[in-house]
Every structure is written in C-alpha cells, then in structure tokens.
C-alpha cells in the first residue's frame, strides 16, 4: 500500500476477500466489465452530450495512454478539481487504469486548499476547468506551478493556455493493473483540524461501498441517477452516486448545479429516477416543487443526507417531491447508513437508517470510551470493510481519532434503536455544517488570528433557517480599532480560502469564555443569545 496509508489488519482483509466483499478488482477493470455488459447503453449525459458505456471505456483508454505519454506513472498523485462534466469520470477511470491516484478537490477550493493538497500529497499533476463560475483556474494552476517544483504538469478541460495543456489522448495501450488493495483515490475529510485531511480509498473498499449502496437503493440498469451535487463529493461519487450507477448499468445525468431551476427540467427531460441532495437543497426543491409546473413524476427516490434535518421538514419531502425519501448518514471516512423503504414504523422519518453492509460495526461509547447500554446517547465509533484505518500521512491525528482496535471516532453523537437503526443526536467535533459544506472551526480561526486587529478568535455554527448553520466568529480585538466583518472576510478571501468558509457573522467580545482546563468554552458561546453581532449581506 502507498506509504503514509494504514492497511486493514491482514486477518480482516482475508475475511473480506473470503466473503466476496472485496473482489480483488481494480476500478478501471470494473468499468471495462460494465462496458462489455452494457456497451451501447447510455452511461453519461451532460447537456446534449450522450456517452455510451463503450464510448466511455474507449475514452478512458485513450486518456490513460495520453497521460502515460506525459510520464504519469503508477502512484503519482493528481489533483482533480472539476465541475460535473463527463471528462471528470473519463479521466478518473484513465488514472485508475494507470494506477495513478486522483485527489478530489472541490470546485469551490482556492489557492489555500489546493496548495495544501498538492503539498500534502506531493502531487505532480493538476487538472481543472479553464474557468468555472467566473474563476480562472488556469491562472491558479500557473501560480501553483510556479510555487511548487513538484507540480510538473497542468491540464485543463476547455481552452489550454501557457503551461496548461488540453487533456492528452493517445492510441490505447495495455498497462499493468494496479493492486486492488492499494489506494485508488483520495477523498477530503470534512475536517476538524486546521486543514483538510485526506482519506485514502482503495479499489477494493470503494467498489464495495458503491455496490452496497447501489443495492441498498435497489438501483437497476433502468435507473437514471441525476448527479445534482458535485461528483467530487463522496455522496454523489459513490454513495451510490455516479460510480454505483455505472456499476449497475444505469445512466448518470450530470447537472451543472443542484438548484431546482437547473435540475427540475433535467429530471423531466431525462426521466431521472434517483438523486441525492443535502438538506438545504432539499428544502429549496420542496419549496419550488409546490409552485413550478415541472413534472417530477419520474423520480422514485430522493436521498437526503450530509447534515441534520428538522423532523417537521423530513415529513414534507416525500409528499412534496412525489417520491420515496431515503435518509442518508455518511462520511468520506467510510460508514454509510441508509433508511430502506420497507423498514419498521418510524424508520424513514425518524432515523438515519441502517448500515449498507452487514460487516459494518457501529458502537456508541461514553466519554471514557466504554460502550453504552442500548439506547444510550454517546459518540458513534465504527469500523468495517469500507472505513479506512487512517488518514494519509497523519500519524498523530490517527492516534487520536482511531481506537487501538481500529474504530474510527466519528465525532458524531448518536444512539441506536432496538432495531439497530442509527439516530444522530448532535456533534462533538468542532465543525460547522453550512448547507452541505463542512467547515473546520480551527481552520477559520487560524486565518482570523492572522489579522493584526484580532487578538483571539473562536468560530462556531449558529442555527440558520435555510442553511442549517452559519458561521459566527467571536473575536477579541487587539488595539483600538476593532476589525469589521468585511475586513475579516476580505482577509480570508485574499489568503485564497474558499468562499464558503468566510464567516457570516462577527461578534466582538471582551474575552472568550474558557473551560476550567483553559480551552475556549464553545458550549458557552453556543448558549449565548442576543450576541449583538455584525452580519454579512
Ligand atoms: P463528509 O465526510 O463531508 O460527508 O461529512 C461527514 C459528516 O457529516 C458526519 O460525520 C456528520 O457529522 C455529518 N452528517 C452526514 N450525514 C448526516 C446526517 N444525515 N445527519 C446529521 N449529520 C450528518
């Protein structure tokens, strides 16, 4: 396995193989098999472009040969930052075939995040769009290239310029298949630490996750999955997402953005049957569905997850969208739980469902780490065949967030029902979930304290009707001229931080409340009402 990654213990790996959970198949080969079975069937749709399984397979081969021609070798890391375009899928399959390792950056990431990803992984290649939502990714790529000698090649989907080349294609060739137990790609953790951690996902573990998720959604080749969320998210990539759809022979329709304005006409035109949304978007869809004339009748299942939903809202989703709701709890670190259509009473509306694999182990533990009696609320810890045993190159952090016997401490507060269903009750980790975006409080605080007029900063999520939470920064000013919210946002923007991380509110305080141990008491901050803060537009 790639250096810096933690393999599963050999006895468990043997067990997963013996059970057929891990099939010993690289992801690139899984596409090849799908192309043999479903060749002329449509695999991907984007606007007026329709790509069959056979075409996608051949395209991935040409790209693999093109990348190899540029000297991209097995295990090289390739930062991929693309919106929902077919090239994203094709070039990832090409890289999987070579055994090169995509690192999934999000479209909203900027210099700060991308530089971190390149440095942490030693990436030699960046692949992005030319421009996206008025942002020039080529200029960003050139800047990274100038700063980082290891970043050798830049490719673009769209117009090349300067050092940034068009995606290379060449006559297909055979490449030695990568070891299926090795890392296929890196996902980003929502993160509670200053900068995002990377989660190594293997061919074996991720193919299993996507297949198990597809089976829990009862996907068939007649399904049309609408990829509304960015496909670089674990939810839309493999839960079951695009990958699960392709493994089943269905069609994945790529949406430019997840809004009802974009997606409703797509549902209608392509007869989409399944999609996945985060709660804030589901809310938008529910509101819009009430009064637009769009026909969403083809939808049979909407997955909603990634953040907490209010119970009253949960009830409205199915009736408003005219389809079944599936609640999803999941994380890029692995574990996925889904509600199932024929679960016990209260299952779909009142729980986050059951794990997608019988091999998933879930425990609820108290502060000392002891397992709680059934029904008790504590931290969810988990391990299983698609929950990796460590973050990449993060030994100290791993020692804290994995137990000695390999359970991942999720930082989520939960309980299990008598039927084994998971119910999420809250969060221990220092993270804000703003819409579907995860923001590490520590990362924002580290930026804010760089401002000369900031002596100390603590960031928390405050409830928000629409986004679930917004980011509020409590700041102790230094000197006589306290900073304004606009100045702090400008500071972070200027430091190349993704926009969704900029604080929405600012509250100036004399001092931050401290716990008896001298740490910032975020519970006390959360309990504050009427904070007299300044809000962004
Ligand atoms: P990510 O890896 O970005 O998908 O983030 C995973 C985290 O999102 C989990 O650890 C939870 O804190 C949160 N999360 C995901 N799904 C749900 C859900 N259905 N309800 C509440 N929180 C959720």
From TrEMBL:
Residues 443-519 form the AMP-binding enzyme C-terminal domain. It comes from the Bacteria. Signal peptide: none annotated. Residues 32-392 form the AMP-dependent synthetase/ligase domain. This is (2,3-dihydroxybenzoyl)adenylate synthase. The lineage of its organism: Bacteria, Bacillati, Actinomycetota, Actinomycetes, Pseudonocardiales.
């Amino acid at each position: 396995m790639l250096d810096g990654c933690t393999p599963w213990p050999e006895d468990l790996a043997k067990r997963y193989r013996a059970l057929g959970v891990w099939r010993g198949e690289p992801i690139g080969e899984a596409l090849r098999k799908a192309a043999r079975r479903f060749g002329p069937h449509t695999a991907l749709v984007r606007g007026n472009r329709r790509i069959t399984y056979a075409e996608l397979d051949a395209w991935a081969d040409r790209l693999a040969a093109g990348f190899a021609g540029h000297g991209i070798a097995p295990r090289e890391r390739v930062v991929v930052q693309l919106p929902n375009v077919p090239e994203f899928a094709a070039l990832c399959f090409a890289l999987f075939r070579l055994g090169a390792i995509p690192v999934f950056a999000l479209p909203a990431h900027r210099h700060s995040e991308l530089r971190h990803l390149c440095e942490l992984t030693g990436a030699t290649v960046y692949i992005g769009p030319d421009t996206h939502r008025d942002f020039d990714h080529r200029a960003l790529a050139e800047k990274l290239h100038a700063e980082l000698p290891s970043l050798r090649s830049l490719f673009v989907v769209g117009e090349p310029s300067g050092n940034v080349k068009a995606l290379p294609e060449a006559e297909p060739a055979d490449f030695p298949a990568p070891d299926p137990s090795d890392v296929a790609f890196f996902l980003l953790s929502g993160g509670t630490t200053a900068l995002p951690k990377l989660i190594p996902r293997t061919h074996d573990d991720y193919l299993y996750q996507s297949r198990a998720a597809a089976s829990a959604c009862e996907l068939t080749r007649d399904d049309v999955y609408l990829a509304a969320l960015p496909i670089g998210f674990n939810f839309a990539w493999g839960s079951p997402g695009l990958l699960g759809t392709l493994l089943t022979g269905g069609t994945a329709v790529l949406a430019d953005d997840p809004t009802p304005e974009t997606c409703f006409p797509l549902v209608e035109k392509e007869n989409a049957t399944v999609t996945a949304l985060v709660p804030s978007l589901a809310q938008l869809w529910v509101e819009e569905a009430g009064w637009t004339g769009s026909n969403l009748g083809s939808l049979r299942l909407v997955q909603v997850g990634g953040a907490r939903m209010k119970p009253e809202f949960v009830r409205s989703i199915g009736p408003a969208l005219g389809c079944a709701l599936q609640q999803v709890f999941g994380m890029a670190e692995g574990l996925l739980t889904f509600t199932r259509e024929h679960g016990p009473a209260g299952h779909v509306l009142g729980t986050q469902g059951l794990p997608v694999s019988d091999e998933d182990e879930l425990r609820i533990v108290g502060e000392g780490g002891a397992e709680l009696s059934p029904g008790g609320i504590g931290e969810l810890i988990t391990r299983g065949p698609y929950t990796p045993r460590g973050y990449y190159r993060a030994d100290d952090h791993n020692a804290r967030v994995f137990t000695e016997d390999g359970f991942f401490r999720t930082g989520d507060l939960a309980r299990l029902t008598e039927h084994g269903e998971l119910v999420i009750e809250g969060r221990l980790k220092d993270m804000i979930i703003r819409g579907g975006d995860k923001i590490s409080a520590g990362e924002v605080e580290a930026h804010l304290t760089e401002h000369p007029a900031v002596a100390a900063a603590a960031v928390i999520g405050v409830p928000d009707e629409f986004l679930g939470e917004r980011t509020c920064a409590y700041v102790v000013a230094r000197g006589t001229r306290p900073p304004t919210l606009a100045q702090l946002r400008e500071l972070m923007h200027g430091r190349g931080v993704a926009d969704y991380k900029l604080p929405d509110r600012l509250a100036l305080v004399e001092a931050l409340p401290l716990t008896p141990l001298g740490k910032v008491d975020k519970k006390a901050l959360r309990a504050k009402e009427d904070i007299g803060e300044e809000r962004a537009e």
